[in-house]
């Protein structure tokens, strides 16, 4: 597998990191009030040998899960006062377990979630601020990438500590490009270049009107929000920069949506109705020539022996902004002081040089701190996903917007699916969706 770093210059001055993992959207119903569990300061906080036990719930079930577990194991071995126990499960299972744990008071002490979701819960008083973690010089927080830290800010306070951050990159199958008569070393750099390639990449050998191979695996639900980020390409978006006004009905947003809905429905660039997992499988089984996704898929695609390249995603006519992803660790607001202090020690280890070298080498994610980049020698991917020209174009999706999660889940995604299924024109559907989004913002 040969990884190709994109050559196009960036137009944005700094990284403003984004939302993150696929099924986090479903967490909008999560209620952490009462999820004290071992954070309540009860006798359950310690094991028989006197250690404070922290329950760490997360959804890292993919190829990056072993790397996360290794850092946790290393932390546990590094001292004899605290033991972190991971509870790694599919995101949808995690949400249900957290919901049912509320009544039983046996929820997590630490929970990982998309940083873009944190404002929703911080606004409802479900997470405690962690500004004092950043204020303590002993935690070496000044070494962290500012974008990864700022991603969990809400209303002037910080409610999370980064687990990871990464830009989304374009994976492209070189063999499928070659089979289509395209240069395997020249992936599309603009929307128009991609659109011109669609007739060659979406092939229908059976003549049944349904492609056997698609140009792109583009999910419309239960996924990292790639589709919403495409609105930036024309200068559109979901909400305004100050988070107060819906942009879904703006001409620029409608222009982007019409372009991509037409590519999918009329040009057969991608199947309709893909989840994030479906999109990954489509690319992994060589039924799609392109997928835009994060570094967590490098291991799976390598194990599938896909001959792929990596490049910066194609840019729109106005903007080449790149979607990025941050997962942060938060603490329920009713955790005890003892558990909070123990959690802070784990956070500091996770983001220490040793923790980040292990994490980056094992997961393919860029480290959360730049001062160890030259020590990431076991994987080529952190340097690719963290390349300056890619990072400089990266952008947050609805940063600090408490209603961001509900808008994605209950407004944008259903509207997109209606448009893809031909239940009205894009303009009609998203003009109505914009009104619904504004109502969420105004609550």
TrEMBL record:
Residues 1-33 form the signal peptide. Keywords: Signal. Pfam families: SBP_bac_8. Gene3D superfamilies: Periplasmic binding protein-like II. CDD domains: PBP2_UgpB. InterPro entries: Bact_solute-bd_prot1, SBP. This is ABC transporter substrate-binding protein. It comes from Microbacterium yannicii.
């Amino acid at each position: 597998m040969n990884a190709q770093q994109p050559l196009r210059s960036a137009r944005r001055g700094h990284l403003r990191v984004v939302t993150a993992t696929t099924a986090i959207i479903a967490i909008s119903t999560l209620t952490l009030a009462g999820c004290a569990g071992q954070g309540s300061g009860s006798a359950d906080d310690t094991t028989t040998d006197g250690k404070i036990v922290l329950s760490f719930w997360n959804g890292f079930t993919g190829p990056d899960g072993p790397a996360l577990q290794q850092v946790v194991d290393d932390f546990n071995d590094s001292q004899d006062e605290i033991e972190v126990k991971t509870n790694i499960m599919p995101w949808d299972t995690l949400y249900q377990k957290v919901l049912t744990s509320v009544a039983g008071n046996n929820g997590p002490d630490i929970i990982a979630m998309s940083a873009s979701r944190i404002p929703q819960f911080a606004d409802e008083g479900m997470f405690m601020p962690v500004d004092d973690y950043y204020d303590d010089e002993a935690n070496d927080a000044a070494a962290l990438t500012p974008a990864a830290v700022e991603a969990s800010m809400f209303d002037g306070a910080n409610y999370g500590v980064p687990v990871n951050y990464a830009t989304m990159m374009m994976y492209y199958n070189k063999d499928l490009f070659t089979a289509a008569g395209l240069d395997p070393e020249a992936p599309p750099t603009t929307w128009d270049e991609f659109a011109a390639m669609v007739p060659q990449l979406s092939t229908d050998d059976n003549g049944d009107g349904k492609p056997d191979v698609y140009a792109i695996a583009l999910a419309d639900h239960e996924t990292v929000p790639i589709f919403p980020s495409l609105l930036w390409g024309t200068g559109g978006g979901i909400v305004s920069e100050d988070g107060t006004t819906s942009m879904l009905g703006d001409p620029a947003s409608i222009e982007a949506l019409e372009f991509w809905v037409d590519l999918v429905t009329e040009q057969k660039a991608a199947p309709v109705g893909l989840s994030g997992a479906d999109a990954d499988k489509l690319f992994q089984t060589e039924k799609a020539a392109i997928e835009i996704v994060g570094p967590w898929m490098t291991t799976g695609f390598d194990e599938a022996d896909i001959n792929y390249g990596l490049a910066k995603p194609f840019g729109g006519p106005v903007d080449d902004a790149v979607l990025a992803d941050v997962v942060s660790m938060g603490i329920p607001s009713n955790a005890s002081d003892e558990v909070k202090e123990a959690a802070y020690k784990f956070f500091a280890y996770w983001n220490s040089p040793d923790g980040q070298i292990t994490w980056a080498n094992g997961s393919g994610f860029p480290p959360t701190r730049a001062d160890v980049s030259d020590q990431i020698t076991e994987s080529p991917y952190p340097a690719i996903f963290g390349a300056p020209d890619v990072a400089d174009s990266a952008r947050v999706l609805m940063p600090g917007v408490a209603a961001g999660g509900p808008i994605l889940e209950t407004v944008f995604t259903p509207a997109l699916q209606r448009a893809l299924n031909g239940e009205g024109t894009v303009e009609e559907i998203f003009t109505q969706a914009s009104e619904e989004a504004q109502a969420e913002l105004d609550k």
